Amino acid sequence: MSPKLHRLVLRICFVLLFLLIGNLIRTVWQQRASINLAIAKGQQIYMMMDSQPVGLSEAELNNLDTTVSDLIFVDALPLSLAEARPWQELGCGVNNCAHLTYFDRVNGRTVNQIMSLTDDSILAEWQDDLSRPGGSRFVAEDAIQIAAGDPEVTAVLGDIGAGDPAMIPMSAWLADDACREDWCVDLTFHSPNGDGRIYHVFVNMSQQTVARTFYTRGRPDLDVAAPVSQRAAFTDGCHEQDGWNVCWEMTAHDGVLFRDATYNDTPIFSNIKIPQIEAWYPSWPGGYRDEIGFSATVPPFGDTIVNELDDGFEVRQLFTEFTRWPNCICCYRYEEIIRFFADGSFEPRFISYGPGCDDLSIYRPFWRIDLDLDGPEDDQVWLWQDTEWTEMETETELFPFVDNLGPDGFKLATGSGDLLYRWALLPTDPLGLDEARVFVLQENELEGEQPLSPGPGDTFQPPRQWLNDEPVFGEDIVLWYVPLLKTRKTEPLWCMPDPEPGINQCEAILRAQITDELPQPTAEELAEMQATATPAATEPAATPAPTPTPRPVQGNTVEEVLLNAGCGACHAIGPIGEGHKVGPNLSLIGYEATGRIPGMTAEEYLRQSIVEPNYALAPTCPNGPCMPNIMPQDYGQRLTAEQIDSIVAYLLALDGTTIVENPTVIGEGDTAVFPKGGSAAKTSNNIVAGIDTSSASIQLIMIGVVLLLTLFLLWKRPYEEE
Question: How many CB atoms lie within 10 A of CB 254?
Answer without folding.
Answer: 26
